[in-house]
Amino acid sequence: MGSGKLRAEADLRRETLPQYKMDTVVGYTLQAGVLLSLALISAGLIWKWVATGGLVFDYRLRGMNLFHLAAQQFRLAAHGTVRPRLLVNLGVIVLLLTPYSRVLASVAYFTAILKNWKYSLFTSVVFIVLTYCLFLR
Amino acid sequence: MAPFHLLFPVSVLAGFVGAMSGLGGGVVLIPALTLLGVDIKHAIAVSILCIIATSCGSASAYVRNHIPNLKVGMFLEMFTVLGALTGASVTLVISPQPLYIAFGLVLLGSWLALLLAGRQSWHDGPQDSMSRWLELEGSYPDDAVGQTIHYKGRRAYLGAPAMLGAGIIAGLLGIGAGAVKVLIHDLVMGLPPKVSTTTSNLIIGVTALAGTSVYLAAGLINLGLAAPVILGVVLGAFIGTRLLVRLTNQAVRRFFLFVLLILAAEMIARGIRGA
What we know:
The complex is a heterodimer. In chain A, 82% of the residues lie in helices and 0% in strands. In chain A, helix 2 crosses helix 3 (84-113) and helix 3 runs antiparallel to helix 4. Chain A is elongated. Chain A is mainly alpha-helical. Chain B is mainly α. Chain B has one domain. Helices cover 73% and strands 4% of the residues of chain B. Chain B has a two-stranded antiparallel sheet with strand order 1-2. In chain B, strand 1 (137-142) and strand 2 (147-152) form a beta hairpin. The radius of gyration of chain B is 18 Å and the shape is globular. Classes of the chains: A mainly alpha, B mainly alpha. The interface between A and B is large, with 60 and 52 residues.
């Protein structure tokens, strides 16, 4: 019982330092993702307003998954077809990738840093289900 | 479609009320959008997209303060993402009427949760073997009392299926279902209030991503609608969080309880009338 408690305390110390570093990285990643996304969406709306004097976009993304959408937007950007809609779309892509990258970071953290097989498995399950969702058509 | 000068302020208000009441933006946003003439399924799809932004935005600050429990979060996310995937898939195929009624019922549940909030005081208790195996314990620095609080999560065997249900509600209705998740953390798993609200916030972003993907694939995300709504909700939530972190003022609290009850009645009535 006593050795178990000591081991638990040692585990806690071993986990605390990398966890604090990890928290900082994850915290700033989430913040950067949301801010970039909002900046892109705002820029798209402002551009639309300046160009047309109106703010009404009415377009649906025809059933497609995130990766299709991203590929399509990058193709448009590569061809120089930059328009307000492209910025809004990129904003949404960045927004969807933000929690996804948080989960990916958690997989790396439990697998490579903590070497905790249980949580490597759990985070991988979450990552795989999310990847499946993002590939839905 | 409703014009920007209506959509934007309504979204700011929804984000503001959602943050102030702790219930999240979706609970107010969806009824408001439907009142502006947006079809309920499109309102749900846009709302769940907004939730990614509000949840990740506030999670970033909590994570840097080392409050959420990543293990509790990751373990429960396995269930909420499956739930959201299921719930959103159901929304795609059912008619709008049951969605209105379900939304009204969830609003009533949130009303009850808000009414009962703060009545429970947290105390640490013995951990069961499954929760111990899952390493659901932790500690966080509590600035209010100036010390590190240690806690042990318990009853993971009840928390997991309950979270599957919370995920289904989130995906089905396009809300974060934060009130449900916090109740599960508090009452079932015995987590301290700060850990339970912040961990729930972390879970909400990932759960909303699963739901959003389903709506994106179904072509229900109208970016013309989403752009002003996302900006409005995030701005409203930002102001709401800065202004009042938790509901302390009784008058404000009573006002939210009143608004929720009206919205719940309105949604149920529309479900019964056939919208």
